[in-house]
Every structure is written in C-alpha cells, then in structure tokens.
C-alpha cells in the first residue's frame, strides 16, 4: 500500500501538470523527480521499484546537457504505463483516481515529446 503521506504530494504533482508548472524546465523538475524516486524506493514495495527505476532514468536524462525528446517521450510513456499499473493494483488503493489522472497526463506529455522528435 502507498503510504498515507503520498496522497498530498501526488495531488500537488497532478495539479502541477494540470496548471503547466511542469514546463518550468528540467532544473525545476529534477528535485520533484528525485523526491518521488526516493519515496518509492523507501517503500521497498516490489510493484513500486520499477517506477523508481524509470524515475532514475528520467532524472539522468533531465540532468544531461542534451535532452532527446524521443528518449524523454519514451520514458514518460513507460512511466505512464507503470503508474496506471500501480493504480490498478494493490499499492495504488486509496489514490487510484489520482494515479490514473497522473498516468493520463504523463501519456499526453509523452505524445507531445515524441511528436517533437519527428
């Protein structure tokens, strides 16, 4: 199960995506991604560890000087599917609506980045 304190942080993340503050740039996104990665790793839950690994890859891409939209889009697409999977399984109980919303927002951003790459 996802810890109770995750709910407010998840809500803030969804609101950030909805209001467009995710477009502030890579430097602003790095601490958010790192925080989510750390939180998920600390749970030790086997369903959440793959999400943490994808966040690690995303953090690596964000911290690099050259950002490939195709790679970033693929990572966000993977992350979207993982988040949807968590929402539909045991650990996502209690926050599944927010996880599904986040999954949809990540998928949308993934499509935008993939389109930019072509």
Task: Supply the key terms.
0% strand; mainly alpha; 5 helices; 118 residues
Describe this structure in words.
There is one protein chain. The protein is mainly α. The chain has one domain (6-117). 75% of the residues lie in helices and 0% in strands. It is built from five helices and no strands. The protein has helices at residues 6-19, 26-43, 49-63, 69-87, 96-117. Helix 3 packs antiparallel against helix 4 (69-87). It is globular.
Summarize the entry for a quick read:
This protein has 118 residues and is mostly helical. The protein is built from five helices and no strands.
Could you give the distance between the termini?
39 Å
- Total domains, how many? 1
Dominant shape: globular
Largest sheet: none
Number of helices: 5
Which series of helices and strands comes N to C? HHHHH
> Based on helices, strands and strand pairing, what is the structural class?
mainly alpha
Low-confidence stretches: none
Number of β-strand runs? 0
Helix content: over 70%
What's the rounded overall pLDDT mean? 84
C-alpha Rg, in Å? Answer: 13 Å
- The percentage of residues in β strands lies in under 5%
Write the layout of secondary structure elements.
Blueprint: H1 6-19, H2 26-43, H3 49-63, H4 69-87, H5 96-117
């Amino acid at each position: 199960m996802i810890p109770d304190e995750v709910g407010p942080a998840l809500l803030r993340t969804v609101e950030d995506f909805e209001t467009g503050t995710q477009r502030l740039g890579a430097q602003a996104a790095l601490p958010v991604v790192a925080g989510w990665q750390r939180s998920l790793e600390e749970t030790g839950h086997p369903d959440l560890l793959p999400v943490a690994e994808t966040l690690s890859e995303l953090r690596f891409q964000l911290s690099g000087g050259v950002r490939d939209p195709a790679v970033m889009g693929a990572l966000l697409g993977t992350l979207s599917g993982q988040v949807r999977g968590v929402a539909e399984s045991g650990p996502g109980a209690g926050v599944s609506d927010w996880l599904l919303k986040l999954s949809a927002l990540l998928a949308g951003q993934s499509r935008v980045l993939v389109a930019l790459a072509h």
